[in-house]
Amino acid sequence: MLKSIKKWFFAIRPYSFFVSISTVVMSAAIAFNEGHIKWLPAILCLLFALLAQTTSNLVNDYADFNTGCDNENSLGKDRKLVSGEITPKAMRIAISIAATLCLLVGLPLIYWGGWILLPFGLLIIAAAFCYSMGPIPLSYNALGDIAVVLFFGIIPVTFTYYILTKEVNWEIIAAGFAMGLVVDELLIVNNIRDEEEDKLYNKVTTVGIFGSRFMKTVFLFNPLIACLLGYYFMRNICDAHIWTLAVIPLLTYSYSLYRKLGKYQGKQLNSLLGKASLEAIIFALTILIITLIPMS
Question: What is the three-class DSSP state of 141?
Fold first, then answer.
């Protein structure tokens, strides 16, 4: 029993959950700061984000196994199909369960956000599949980074805010874009780790197109750009001096990961996956803390 739980625990890639949690925490913190305190829809948004992330992770494992990208030389310990610990049939069932639960959790949100949420909710679930599967899988055609910024940044942040406030503005869209850039750090590490493997199976990523050296530079600048955007979307919550001081921990942490990214190779990069996902939670907690501190 314990062994079964453990294999599924790694299969859903829990280290990536930080990014889903971060998008909802950031958006809810901003909405709550503006007086829109609604705990139940906020919790449902969080569950929906986690289930969408789980679906995406399982589909990615299944798709990479079917295309041959995952093989006996694969580097990640979360690849359970290629290891034989999970069968394709069991994975298909798990994907169906995760996607169904995601839909069921999302449906009640229509009460707060209206029926306009239904097509967008279905789009998010579809994106969890299209990221790795379909006629033009996004992650196989150098569109993974764009998909991450959109579906793990702009869309969840904006729609969580909309559900809580019934409004959408340029500030929250900028906040979502900033979070998307920070979340993209995880994908960059993943693609640098899998660079040689992806080339063998014609999986095209931005690392494959621009090279790992260039994407390491992107890795360095993503959190910096996100923090610069914060001067815009946080301007009604705190002044520039407070924001400058608040983002120092994130930028310091990000730079330390950048240094390691330049030194690590192969399986060493596995340890950076979870650490890179922590950037998103640090960014979200920075915003949360600022919203909780009374500003004179």
Answer: strand
